[in-house]
Write a structure and sequence with these properties.
Elements lengths: L3 E4 L1 H8 L3 H19 L4 H5 L6 E6 L2 E7 L2 E8 L2 E4 L1 E3 L1 H9 L1
Parallel strand pairs: 1-5
Antiparallel strand pairs: 2-3, 3-4, 4-5, 4-6
Length: 99
C-alpha cells in the first residue's frame, strides 16, 4: 500500500529561511520521498536516482529523510500518510525533537 506525503504549514515556513541552493536540496528529498512512498517503501528504487538518500526512524512515529548530511526533513508517519513538518539542519532537527 503506498504512503502519501502531505505538507504542514510549519514545513512551508521552514522553507522560507533556506537559501535557493538549500531549497533545491529539499526538492531532491521530496522527489526521493515520493519515489520511496509510491513504490512501496523500496529503497532500491530511490537509489536509482538519488544514491545518497536516507530515511530513518528517530523515535515514536517521527522519521527523518535526506539526500545529503546537512539538510533533512522531519516527518511523522500516521497510517498511510506522512506529513513533512520541518526542513532544517541537524541542530534545528534536534531542537525541534527535544521541544
Amino acid at each position: 500500500m503506498p504512503l502519501f506525503l502531505l505538507y504542514a504549514s510549519s514545513f512551508e515556513r521552514s522553507l522560507k529561511s533556506l537559501d535557493p541552493q538549500q531549497r533545491a536540496i529539499v526538492v531532491r528529498i521530496i522527489e526521493s520521498l515520493e519515489i520511496y512512498y509510491t513504490h512501496g517503501c523500496n529503497l532500491s528504487r530511490v537509489f536509482e536516482t538519488e544514491t545518497r538518500f536516507f530515511y530513518k526512524k528517530l523515535r515514536h512515529d517521527f522519521y527523518e529523510a535526506g539526500v545529503e548530511g546537512k539538510l533533512r526533513i522531519i516527518l511523522p508517519k500516521d497510517g498511510t500518510s506522512c506529513v513533512a513538518i520541518l526542513a532544517g539542519n541537524h541542530d534545528q532537527i534536534r531542537k525541534f525533537m527535544s521541544g
